Amino acid sequence: MAKQGREYGGALDQLLELTMLLSADMERGLGELGLTGPRTHLLWVVHHQGPSTQRVLADALGVSARNITGLVDALVDTGFVTREPHPTDRRATLVSLTKHGATVMTQMAADHAELAEGLFGGLGPRQFGAFVTTMTTVLDELRRRVEEAR
Amino acid sequence: MAKQGREYGGALDQLLELTMLLSADMERGLGELGLTGPRTHLLWVVHHQGPSTQRVLADALGVSARNITGLVDALVDTGFVTREPHPTDRRATLVSLTKHGATVMTQMAADHAELAEGLFGGLGPRQFGAFVTTMTTVLDELRRRVEEAR
DNA sequence: TATTGTTATACTCTATAACTATA
DNA sequence: TATAGTTATAGAGTATAACAATA
Fold this sequence. Notes:
The structure is a homodimer.
Chain A: H1 2-27, H2 30-33, H3 37-49, E1 52-53, H4 54-61, H5 65-77, E2 81-85, E3 93-97, H6 99-120, H7 125-148
Antiparallel strand pairs in A: 1-3, 2-3
Chain A binds a DNA duplex through helix 3 and helix 5.
């Protein structure tokens, strides 16, 4: 029992270390591009959903509208996005990627795929399949806990 | 080939979602205790390593000495730690847990174990063992990449 | 000289509240 | 009335640089 508990704790520690290394690995290089984590997250949403109002971005990122104003200001200043008037709602603005922003995000998607290949490419098909299955189970349990706690 | 790449990407997305949920789950409740992520990280180090100089804490957390001054200031103000003179080096100060700080960290370790049990307790022994083995492999690859990138 | 920690300054991300323009 | 976004204000975490006290 005690031994089992220690093993579980060790596995959680592995996940936490992986969490930290993964964010370090991803955010490394963002600085050279003039990007930060939150700004990249915003670009990621616009890259996948297309031109979006700031209200939509606030909900997607789970932050206040005021915060989006600041992030978009910075991304306009550094040439990643533009603010355009919304075609039908004159209160709203549409945030779109510039050509530079689109280029950077396309490269980032490729890097994402390369990282995935690097992390999992060394596993056998059986081992990889079992890992995905287990991750799904663990994720479901974690989602359940987070949901229940709200 | 293309299908394989998509599968790898999906697994990486699972890991990233787990990363976000895990930090959300852990930081939930810290606010009620009057703690934040970085302050808790500092307490965690002192809890495990015992009374420590600010220099040691800066290295352990990977942040500047200035930053430690601010975190310790806040933790002293809120009653989690004390600053004591170093017995032999009059330049340095030793940061120690107060009784309250120690109580909170002991409870946090118990919560950590409970979370691990909740996440992995539903897996069979075989499945859990395979998961740990795979995590070890993936972590090694990730550590290798981070090391190589420095 | 080198190291420990602080003061000074600045930037990023975050929040709430009050306000303007529009719906 | 309600919504989209901004200005005003504040707090946390982070950094570098200059400095004081001590090693």
